[in-house]
Amino acid sequence: MIYSREGDSSLSNTNITNCISQQATAFRYDYMKSTTKVKFCNFENLEATQKAISNLQNTDGIIERCNYINNSQTDKNYGLVHEYNKRLDVLDSVFRDNLKNKNGAIFSTISGQIYIFNCSIDTYSQSKNGGTISTSEMPMKPFFNDLKFIGISPCEGSLLIAQNKDKKDSIYKNIKLLSLINFFYHNI
User: Where on the tree of life does the source sit, at the highest rank (predicted)?
Assistant: First the structure.
């Protein structure tokens, strides 16, 4: 749906629903000059017949307070969210009722890193061959942060979700995160 290469880009307050494509059904960003930020978006009922729903190639990115609901992809080498060769932070987002695929995962990376903070991922959002996240560090049971969208407003929850200690920089630096199940402290 959305493709950008070698520039600056951001995506916010957007709903993308009921689409089918071979790859990057929601968005694809390649070789961007600055960190690409995707915030307050809903991606629902999307299908990628070959590659990822959301794809960042050689691009640092932040996906924050987004909903991925009832999506699917079929390539075992990709996930619904894919990062190649750079870093992607996924913050305060919801992954619910994504179809179990024969292959693939929710998150995938090739030569990059994906950091997942304070997200809700249900048991349906996995496949037997790829899983939710391919790592030995993840818990075996689903985890939830109880965030909800009210219209297209920001996510709201009953507890403090993130507090930026220095209050000057982006949300992922020096963050204290509090979830309904666990308290995490991460200093980047």
Answer: Eukaryota
